[in-house]
Design brief:
By secondary structure, the chain is an alpha+beta fold. The protein folds into two domains: 297 residues, no CATH class; 169 residues, no CATH class. The chain is 22% helix and 24% strand. Strands 3-10-11-12-13-14-4-5-6-7-8-9-15 form a 13-stranded mixed beta sheet, with no helix packed on it. The longest helix is centred in the C-terminal third of the chain and has 19 residues.
Length: 480
């Protein structure tokens, strides 16, 4: 089962990293990345980072920084203060982690920057208590490629619970993920506890700067700059309260009120495990036992479903003599299955994409493994869906081809629902009255005089209607 974003961040589980051991594969400059043992050493206004959205060195808006004094010119700076107990009603972050799936569902901070990364914007309140509960909780709104998602993240001891509320396209249902986080998402490593308050003892002083602070839009704030490995931290000189943190492949964090000692309401931590993670709780519970604790047991797949996945040719009563007949026959099976359906023409392109975002998060990965093993057309075709969709949406709007793109998404969404979810998951989708589109009956062929952008939309459509390869005697016209 694919897990929706496991929202670990450097404030929650401090990933200990030394030096440029990964070779800085993205060739980030010293403003975006400056590790503690760089030669020459990092100095003021280096490694400051900023609002980031991609792996390229220019896909970041670095915050403005002006030097005040280096470490030798500031006498006895106040050490950073990460109090043993504090609460903030608002904080802002960009989570950076490994890109493990097309939609960045499984995003963990890692101990290297190798490969493609995800950049996920979040904001909300945060509570921390290492005196009584040894816990951290934050309730955030997560900006995704298809809209915002509400999420509660609760870490107590070695356990982590993530409770997500899906938006309208999934009928507002809840999902709980139960897990034991491990350093760098390495399953062979021991479980990682919430960040200990004395981690600031590791920090080395860099100097004093005027820094612009993102999200709260304060400019030329006088702050002390500290570092550990590739981690950079900025504190208020008089109090030592941490106002901002940056790590180029873990993320950006802004604490508008700092991290000094404040009262914390115990109710933040007393629902442990969360009720939605226990039996009878959330509609979708992932790797949770009946009591809400993590289990390594995978969702079971019925033998008949595995057999169907290995069988590329559908039964005769699932085939049609042409594209229209195929669509009508499959629509009939879809309606008779009991799932709520809506005609393809009644959907907007972005609405179907949002539904696919949800379907991808509740799919069972074993199906895709089987399809890829056999080079079966039912396999998930791309690792960059959000990038491709964004580009195709733009082209389709520009050339009045949204109906073509929409019809392709209807076919792809139905294929994901039918061939990538278990029967148990289908029953939950039916129970919650989540709508699935019907297949579009019209067949779209690319005109001979189409320009490159129009051809790209039609090529995307061709890849999405591959059900016709097996369910119809008519095959789509492939483009090279």
């Amino acid at each position: 089962m694919s897990m929706l974003s496991i929202l670990l961040f450097c404030s929650l589980f401090f990933v200990v990293i030394h030096s440029q051991a990964d070779g800085n594969p993205h060739n980030w400059d010293r403003t975006r990345r400056c590790d503690q043992d760089y030669d020459p050493p990092c100095t003021i206004c280096e490694g400051v980072g900023g609002i980031v959205w991609g792996d390229e060195n220019d896909q970041i808006s670095n915050t403005a920084c002006l030097p005040i004094a280096n470490s030798s010119q500031v006498k006895n700076p106040t050490r950073p203060d990460w109090a043993t107990k504090w609460y903030t009603s608002e904080y802002y972050s960009i989570l950076i982690g490994k890109k493990n799936d097309p939609f960045c569902f499984q995003t963990f901070p890692s101990n290297d920057s190798i490969g493609a990364l995800c950049y996920q914007r979040q904001q909300g309140p945060q509570a921390y208590d290492m005196e009584e509960y040894y816990a951290l909780r934050y309730d955030v709104q997560i900006a995704t490629v298809v809209g915002n998602l509400s999420s509660e993240v609760l870490a107590v001891g070695p356990y982590l619970w993530v409770v997500n509320k899906f938006p309208w396209y999934a009928a507002g249902v809840h999902q709980c993920v139960c897990t034991q986080p491990r350093e760098g998402a390495d399953k062979t490593k021991p479980a990682v506890y919430p960040l200990a308050y004395n981690w600031t003892d590791l920090l080395a002083y860099v100097g004093r700067e005027f820094l612009d602070i993102e999200y709260i839009w304060q400019s030329k704030v006088e702050l002390d700059h500290w570092t550990y490995g590739p981690h950079h931290i900025w504190t208020v000189p008089d109090s030592g309260k941490i106002l901002r943190m940056w790590q180029p492949y873990n993320g950006l964090q802004v604490f508008p009120f700092g991290t000094g000692e404040t009262p914390v309401d115990a109710s933040n931590f007393t629902d442990t495990p969360p009720a939605l993670c226990k039996k009878g709780g959330a509609t979708f519970r992932i790797k949770c036992d009946d009591d809400g604790y993590p289990t390594n047991e995978e969702e079971e797949i019925e033998a008949s479903e595995i057999a169907r996945a290995h069988q590329p040719t559908p039964a005769h009563n699932f085939r049609g003599e042409n594209f229209e007949e195929m669509s009508n026959i499959l629509n009939g099976h879809l309606i008779n299955s009991g799932v709520k359906t809506k005609a393809c023409e009644d959907w907007a392109v972005e609405e179907i994409q949002q539904l696919q975002y949800f379907l991808h998060s509740v799919r069972h990965e074993e199906f895709d493994r089987i399809y890829k093993q056999h080079d079966d057309n039912r396999k998930i075709r791309h690792h960059e869906h959000h990038t491709i969709w964004e580009k195709m949406n733009k082209f389709a709007r520009k050339h009045d081809l949204e109906h073509v793109l929409r019809d392709g998404h209807c076919h792809e969404a139905v294929m994901w629902y039918v061939h990538h979810t278990t029967q148990d998951m289908k029953e939950k989708i039916i129970e919650k009255s989540i709508f699935i589109p019907l297949l579009a009956q019209d067949r779209h062929d690319c005109p001979d005089d189409a320009n490159n952008e129009e051809k790209a939309v039609y090529d995307t459509y061709e890849q999405q209607v591959t059900c016709a390869d097996c369910h119809s005697d008519v095959k789509p016209n492939r483009r090279n």
